[in-house]
Amino acid sequence: MGCAYTLKMNLVKRILEEHLVEGELESGSDIAIRIDQTLTQDATGTMAYLEFEAMSIPRVKTELSVSYVDHNTLQTDFRNADDHRYLQSIAARYGLYFSRPGNGICHQLHLERFARPGKTLLGSDSHTPTAGGVGSLAIGAGGLNVAAAMAGEPFTLKCPKVVGVRLTGKLSPWVSAKDVILELLKRVDVKGGVGKVFEYFGPGVETLSVPERATITNMGTETGATTSIFPSDDITRQWFEAQGRAEQWIRLEADDEDYDEIIEIDLSEVEPMVALPHSPGNVKRVRDVEGMEVQQVTIGSCTNSSLRDLKIVAQILKGRTISPNLSLLINPGSRQVVEHLVESGEYNYLVDAGARIIENACGPCIGMGGAPPSGSVSVRTYNRNFEGRSGTKDAGVFLVSPETAAATAIKGVLTDPRDLGVAPEIKMPDRFVVNDNMIIPPLPPEQASNVEIIRGPNIKPLPDFPPLPDKLEGEILLKVGDNITTDHIMPAGAKILPLRSNIPEISKYVFSRVDENFASRAMEKHGGFIIGGENYGQGSSREHAAIAPKHLGIKAVIAKSFARIHRANLINFGILPLTFADPSDYERIEQGDHIEIEVGQLPHEMVMRNITKGEEYVVRHDLGEKEQEIMVTGGLLPWIKKKVVS
Ligand code: MIC
Ligand code: SF4
């Protein structure tokens, strides 16, 4: 069990301690925590439920599990629709809530309807920390980890360092929460949060509404952080009351500021910010880069699709017309948001100004439609601007606040919203319209056990995961640089996303945007190795970035460092994540080199022989005891099956 009970603790420690099942609350050491809630979305969910089914558990063991459909809603053929039907039947059979397509984006919906202060939430999507906006300890993970949590397994993670972000002051007109998180990204970049949780505190907290806090915790993901969290205070209470969930609110505030590190942000000094292509960490002041011509503006996504955000956009656009040189797309976060916009008349301001309002779903954020023209500038309120993610490889995506996006849509050039004069006021409702008719509740167990699971032809069974051999050998199939994202490894978008339930098919696209021959080379050589730089696998939680390479025979990735979720996904699917003892060895290895590693019983240091060059390098792993067992067994699924049988 964890450290002795102390009354004074920061929020993160307090929630971790209440959920601790194994280990000590010392940063960097392996701990396991009980998971209260899970969420999945359709692009990672089908795989997660195939994995859950393979665990032979009759019903989810969590307090609450929700299956959302929001990513794959284009339905250009039967495949997405088949996945939705499969997910609905799974939810009915195993005791989950099912949020039907069109209801909204998982994170916005979870914040509105299910997230609770003090609860742990594990989601198969990297932006699960959105729920940290109401004081939930919400962590993104691979689908298999979420499946294991639904089966009642505790979730293992490295006990994070807790960074206190002290907010003072108050945001100026035209500046909003997105600018705050961009300011943080400017300071810490896309790796600065690795192994850490950002806990917000200080007098500035009470100046931010729940949706604003959620924008900040949502995009905290882009720093590489395990999660981000706000306290649950009177502002949070008002949110719960307005959502008709007053009884689910509890007060939860840090009673000690014993942070490992403190970052100070004076909200009154924050200015409109923008992340330049192709990294969310490439942040500048809008003032410093304003004026460039823009061909597309998109507003929405799980970062900025709340009622607060779309109301301000509507008020800015009221009575105006968007610039003739660009198009404006809006993907709202939920039906609740849309219903309020309609009721207040603000929906018309958007439509009249020329906005193309699309479905309440991820949409253009993940390249599901709405691709910008070639060579263009797309200004988005989203959280990621990785190359090619928009669906247009040579477009440059700029990430901004809703205020900056709306001002830009009017002017046709990147615009600091302060140039528009007096900032509009918005009025938030005291009570939200609550209509959960698109959320199907779990069936009682006696009815659930009769439900038939419906699988379409695109849903292929999981591949086999054989145990780790004593020796790994083969060719270096690819060498890449720093900050390789999961969008590089396993691209998404309208063409590839529908293949998420079909590993043999989706495997053909591994690294396709980096090297189109990668998959065929890997197949021809019967697998091999990948060499990566720093922060390999940043971004999404998609476990396809591990399963698909596994299917192609990838045995190990040797990198300078790994992003948290991707590292866990590699282990879950039996690919060994190794780092160089001497990072300069990275320079010596080339694509095509033949290498051998005796892994035996997985000592923490091993010798990697480069047969082609006649050299040897020391490589390391940092796997904890349980992770080593999982790796040797061939992955988390065979490990859990073995545990269930024994
Ligand atoms: C993303 O924003 O990249 C996604 C799509 O939501 C992913 C999940 C996925 O790849 O399905 C994420 O962030 O985890
Ligand atoms: Fe969906 Fe985009 Fe949010 Fe990912 S980042 S969950 S694709 S809206």
Strand order of the largest sheet: 21-22-23-24-27-26-25
Number of strands: 27
The CATH homologous superfamily of the largest domain corresponds to Aconitase, domain 3
Count of individual helical segments? 23
The shape, in one word, is globular
**Residue-averaged pLDDT:** 96
Helix content: 25-40%
Please tell me the CATH architecture of the largest domain by its name.
2-Layer Sandwich
* Radius of gyration of CA atoms, rounded to a whole number: 24 Å
Description:
- This protein has 646 residues and is of the alpha/beta class.
- It has three domains: 259 residues, Aconitase, domain 3 (2-Layer Sandwich); 144 residues, Aconitase, domain 3 (2-Layer Sandwich); 175 residues, Aconitase, domain 4 (Alpha-Beta Barrel), CATH 3.20.19.
- It is 30% helix and 19% strand.
- It has 23 helices and 27 strands.
- The protein has a seven-stranded mixed β-barrel. The protein has a six-stranded mixed sheet with strand order 7-6-3-4-5-20.
- Strand 15, helix 10 and strand 16 form a beta-alpha-beta unit.
- Helix 2 crosses helix 3, helix 2 crosses helix 5 and helix 10 packs across helix 12.
- The longest helix is centred in the first third of the chain and has 17 residues.
- The radius of gyration is 24 Å and the shape is globular.
- The N terminus is likely disordered.
- The protein binds alpha-methylisocitric acid and iron/sulfur cluster.
- The site of iron/sulfur cluster (SF4) has 10 residues, from loops.
